[in-house]
Specification:
The structure is a single chain. This protein has about 290 residues and is α+β, with helices and mostly antiparallel strands. The protein has two domains: about 1-175, Jelly Rolls (Sandwich); about 180-285, Arc Repressor Mutant, subunit A (Orthogonal Bundle). It is about 60% helix and about 15% strand. The chain is built from 13 helices and nine strands. The strands form two sheets. Strands 1-2-8-3-6-9 form a six-stranded antiparallel beta sheet, with helices on both faces. The protein has a three-stranded antiparallel beta sheet with strand order 5-4-7, with no helix packed on it. A hairpin with a 2-residue loop joins β4 (about 40-45) and β5 (about 45-50). α4 runs antiparallel to α5, α7 crosses α9 and α8 packs across α9 (about 215-225). The longest helix has 26 residues, at about 140-165. The protein is globular and about 60 Å long. The two termini are about 30 Å apart.
């Protein structure tokens, strides 16, 4: 089987795995569950084996050097690719309540293969059944929203499972102990973003951290693949989406709440970063 929408790709076919690698690997979170046999992949110049009962996770936006991929003759799997837009929405929500999210993502980048417990395998099976059932019917705007919700819930469940595995992992302790000054500065920057979602100037954040805007952008790019201005825009867009979707406030009121100088500038900003006006964006999220 092989199903796809604009945000989801779901398959258990080798041709689907190859298609995902060719068209979606750079802008999607990939989750693969090995049902039988083995998958071997050269990842960041290390050979990793995914065997029966393992979960393989690839995070979007991380630079990962993927080399040769091979699999045994009896390899069976299920793969779900979730577009980075869904993943980033979840991460913005997750980082508000999880102060160590960045360390965990860094750990996941280096250790992308996890053994699944019997309980987790059952949960994965339930999500597979739900996704297959929902993807098999004609796609409407409402159906796409349902699929997006299922994908969000499945991803959060995966975060929860990884959290339980990582909390006592010796590698995580080592990672926490080797955080350097630039790591710490980047963490402070992200924390400031959480607390000040209405600030939109790199200079403001750099001043709070007592560093130059250029240095802030450099360490942000090194640690996450995104510049400081890209982070600020992402957080701002995430915040305005929540307000447009979750309230009945007028566009003028939302602009004022987010401390834009005027409604016109708010509309221009939204159009620039989402491709839609605030009215269009609100409608697309509620349809």
């Amino acid at each position: 089987m092989k199903y796809s929408t604009d945000t989801l790709f779901f398959t258990d076919e080798l041709s689907g795995l190859q298609e995902c690698r060719a068209t979606r690997s750079d802008n999607s979170m990939t989750v693969l569950v090995c049902k039988h046999g083995t998958l071997t992949v050269d990842l960041n110049h290390r050979k990793m084996e995914v065997k029966k009962g393992d979960l393989y996770v690839r995070i979007p936006s991380f630079r990962m050097d993927i080399g040769k991929v091979s699999y045994s003759h009896d390899f069976e799997f299920t793969l779900l690719a979730i577009h980075e837009s869904v993943f980033e929405e979840l991460m913005f929500e997750h980082m508000r309540i999880e102060p160590r999210w960045w360390q965990k993502l860094q750990f996941l980048r280096e250790n992308p293969v996890f053994p699944l417990s019997d309980w987790s395998n059952k949960v994965v099976g339930l999500y597979e059944g739900m996704l297959e059932m929902q993807l098999a019917v004609p796609q409407t705007d409402m159906r796409r929203q349902v699929l997006r919700s299922v994908a969000r819930t499945a991803t959060l469940d995966m975060f929860y499972y990884m959290d339980r595995m990582l909390v006592d992992a010796p590698e995580m302790e080592e990672l926490r102990n080797t955080v350097n000054q630039s790591d710490y500065t980047f963490h402070r920057f992200v924390r400031l973003l959480q607390l000040n979602p209405h600030q939109r100037e790199v200079q403001w954040f750099a001043a709070q951290l007592d560093i130059t805007p250029k240095y802030l952008s450099e360490i942000s790019k090194q640690r996450s693949g995104k510049s400081a201005s890209e982070w600020i825009a992402d957080v701002t867009v995430s915040e305005l989406k929540q307000r447009l979707r979750g309230t009945t406030h007028s566009i003028h009121e939302v602009a004022a709440e987010m401390e834009f100088p005027n409604t016109s500038f708010f509309c221009q900003y939204t159009k620039k970063h989402t491709g839609m006006t605030p009215h269009q964006l609100r409608k697309s999220m509620r349809d």
